């Protein structure tokens, strides 16, 4: 009979995600992960697989948290333009202060690993496409009601908004003032008019 796990896998995964987010993939050793997750080597490998499998699982967790937040905002009743605005401002809020300095785990993974690791590159592309489809659908639905500029190509508008959010996250690592971020957000949103 298998022994029950003496640790909480969800909590351990959160700790792994935090470690990778703080240090990046290459700078986070298995020893670092064991310390952060409070696990022994056998529990780590037996539950999560090797370091790369753990990293992909951590990316999945981070991405799910971000996508769920995006979807919750986009699915709110009322004005789609207001929902997009709320989303852009919510991302902007994460780019200020200590949260902003941390940056985005996915952007860090893309910069550190995607040029050299096709599996990570494909994972990032798939996630970006998923986000693009969600945002483009909102743009498309509301163009028919003249709420959003009908001359915009919905997928291009979504890519623009997502690229802008990536730029905001990069700006956040430089510790901008809240006003600096809000000014950028206002300019980004003008594309929807």
Explain what you see.
By secondary structure, this protein is mainly α. It has a single domain (56-192), classed as Tetracycline Repressor, domain 2. 73% of the residues lie in helices and 0% in strands. Helix 5 (80-93) packs antiparallel against helix 10 and helix 8 crosses helix 9. It is elongated, with a radius of gyration of 19 Å. The model has no long low-confidence stretch (mean pLDDT 89).
The CATH topology turns out to be Tetracycline Repressor, domain 2
Instruction: Tell me the Rg in angstroms.
Output: 19 Å
Number of helices: 10
Q: What is the chain-wise order of helices and strands?
A: HHHHHHHHHH
Helix/sheet category: mainly alpha
User: What overall form do the CA principal axes indicate?
Assistant: elongated
Major sheet details: none
Overall structural domain count: 1
Compute the separation of the termini in Å: 63 Å
The CATH fourth-level homologous superfamily? Tetracycline Repressor, domain 2
- How many β strands by DSSP? 0
Text of the CATH class = Mainly Alpha
Uncertain residue segments = none
What integer is the average pLDDT? 89
Strand content: under 5%
Helical residue percent? Answer: over 70%
CATH architecture: Orthogonal Bundle
Give a concise summary:
This protein is mostly helical and 193 residues long.
Features:
mainly alpha, Tetracycline Repressor, domain 2, 10 helices, elongated
Question: How are the SSEs ordered, and which strands pair?
Answer:
Layout: H1 9-23, H2 30-37, H3 41-48, H4 51-74, H5 80-93, H6 97-102, H7 105-112, H8 118-143, H9 154-172, H10 178-189
Helix pairs in contact: 1-2, 1-4, 4-8, 5-10, 8-9, 9-10
